[in-house]
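Protein 1 of 2
SEQ + STRUCT:
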Amino acid sequence: MKFYNLLIKYRLWIGIVLLALGVYVNYVSSFWPSFPLYFIGVILIAGHFFFGPLRLIQEYMENGDMEGAEKIINSIHFPNLLYKPIRSVYFTLKGNIAMMKQDFDGAEKMMKKGLDLGMPMKEAEGASLLQMGMLAMQKNDLKQAEGYIRQALRKGLPDKENEAAAYLQMCSLMMNKREFRAAKDFFRKCKALKPTTPQLVEQIKQIEKYISRIPG
């Protein structure tokens, strides 16, 4: 795995070196001895531009090193050359990083690009739609937020934590619209999932203090 990651990291330069060696072998000998060097070199260079180094981001994300992940993202200079599903992931990750920096306009722009390209899995699309809903809530566009979060729930979400977050946001939106019965229903669905994310647990505790007192 470590060797594979190193290959991904340096495959552009390895490919260029192999092509240069191929030219040299072709010059001093003939085409056929140089053909394997040309072939492998072209594959490595094409892989760099077609697939990109996004696989390397996983380790940084798992360690919470967003600065390292951002450096990998920023090393992609020609994102339009990426294979379409990978390009979608690229824009989604750009949106996530922008969101963490509280650049909500930039995050929305990037995540819309990712969604427009189509996500490789429905659950990934649902997660992106949920994030778009949360972005809309940050901008106080509650109507659009509700639309995105309902779409996220229809598409499906990758885990119970994301699903619970979606129900909790819907609960908040329904309370804002004074649709208290719907708010309570979404709150029950959220609690039934028993989320463990500290932020969600704290939000549930806060809402639980007064939701039983509201009508509906």
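Protein 2 of 2
SEQ + STRUCT:
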Amino acid sequence: MYSKKIAIIVAGGTGQRMGSVVPKQFLEVEGKPILLHTIDQFVAAFSDIQLVVVLPESYLKEGQDLLAKFGFTKNIQFVAGGESRFDSVKNGLSTIKDPSIVFVHDAVRCLLTPALIQRCYQQALENGSAIPAVSSTDTVRLITDADHHHLLNRDNVMLIQTPQTFRSDILLKAFEQKYTPNFTDEANVVEASGVPVFLVDGEFENIKITRPLDLAIAEHILSRRFA
């Protein structure tokens, strides 16, 4: 029933924290734009996957030209992003017409592996969702108000990643809700609809490239993989 696989690649950011004049998804790492590295991993995981790339409206043409330059012309749709992540993902979801397994992934998490994508797919088929997560290796404190905070047991803290993966019926129904500021990722949206979500082992190298240091880390990791 859920034989189709659709990856919504969310690339709606403008790269302000990176300090770049172009969106960070277009910055090059190891001679290739970050967005292309990300797409490569999904295509390597599933050759029949359909891609929905969500970009700022002013960069849609640039994104289309970029993917065409690197030979990506099939199974790709481009959608303009919205004011929030919720809106951008909802715009991407509007393209889904058939029962599918849907991956929602940050375009700038270009260090994920096909093994993670396949793991998420299998669990979503079985349980309805797969949310990649890794354990915290840092000490964590929770601020309760301006003057108070307390230690959390880091063994109970998980750091959430993407691709957050769902059966399409679950995700589409959840996104019928009205937006709230708590909807910082798809797992929160689905939980708010009354459906539980299930974690799956993530990857510590699956970092989100946000700042210049992250770019240097990605260069190192990819150079090692390509060696």
